[in-house]
Amino acid sequence: MSDSNIEKSFDLNSAVQHLADSIKIKTISYPDHEKMDFKLFDEFLLFLENTYPNIKKACKKELVNGYCPIYIWESQGNSNKPVLLLGHYDVVPIEKDSEADWEEAPFSGTIKDDHIWGRGSLDDKNQVIAVMEAVEHLISNGFKPERDIYMVFGFDEEIGGMRGAEEAARIFRERNIEFECVIDEGGCIITDMLEGLTVPAAIIGIAEKGSTNIKITVEDKGGHSSMPPGSTAIGTIARIISNVENNPMPARLTMPVKEMLKTMAPYMKEKKFVLKNIDRLFPIISSMLAKSPLTNALIRTTIAFTMNGGGDAPNVLPQKAWTVANLRVLQGDSVDSTLEHIKKVNPGINFQIEKMLAEEPSEISSIDSEPYKILGSIINGIYPEAVIVPYLMIGGTDSRKYLGSCKNIYRFSAVILTKKDNASIHSSNERISIINFSNMICFYIRFLSLN
Ligand SMILES: [Zn+2]
Hints:
alpha+beta; Aminopeptidase; Alpha-Beta Plaits; eight-stranded mixed β-sheet; four-stranded antiparallel β-sheet; 15 helices; 35% helix; globular
């Protein structure tokens, strides 16, 4: 059977039902592990076992920390490097009091108006189920891969992936496995998300910024508030915050952003010339890019103050005040260089900085590699009108954990997302169109057929 025939014969109705059923299992992850209902995670894993009998028969399965499955579909004695497909089946909770905003209950898995509704339908059970459907279908058609295919599905991606992806990645490094490429969630095909873009763009994440939390603490003598000094510990924290906000980290054009802007240039209504000559013009237009939070995040390390505290009573000077910031570190900077910057813009002020969770920016995957080209041609096979654009992810995925085992890490799901779809992720009325879901399965069938 030719590749395209294999692809046509998969059973979309049953795949749609499987995604709907998977959404009904409330695999919610919470930062506090104690709050997680692991019986439901067991139920989800059992659901995979029962739904995909061919995978159960043909693939090896290991469980990392009890809940992160690694499936290995082995090739027959082939020495090609394996491929790794990622996804995660944990989902974020439904925000308090937001349930009423949902047109269909968030865990109903309702199929209505050519969509599958519910939490996880776009992030990221769609990916897990699409991968499983594709592999199950290929096995049942007697397809034999020419390299080993690995699949890893995280159960704690939404809370950092420390027990799932991080541990699976450690195991792969220990076994000296080097992957030809890794495909994870991240980019998609955008239509109306970038003003002025005249064609759909398939944006493939080739790098991600590092996310780090830090705590800044100021200590003081305290005392009665009737005789205050010029500034209290809280006042000092306020000055530190203000100094940092008024003196952002320097702007820089990194390879993923430069390539993104240049690739998009011919398709931009007005900014064609500027984007095409971005290397030369960057010093002039960087302040313009800094005006939008999105483009600003693409060109510099950002520092967002997210929590603060200090003081116990209205009439007592605080002996301690603190603030927490989330840093998103750009390639070329590091957590330490960002801390140096914070110190530099606060001369003469006494404070301590503590790293709470430190993750450096990822390496950048090549856009000249064979897997990147294959990815582009498969995407264009399904969406001929889409232009393939590399980009820098400002959010994080599980894929960064696998940097030690692979140079070609690409973050992309074969779905068209509008602004509205994108806004539903981690929010209300998350849903995926059946055509999008069908295209995801086609994408994986084509990708695996070429391997
Ligand atoms: Zn996700």
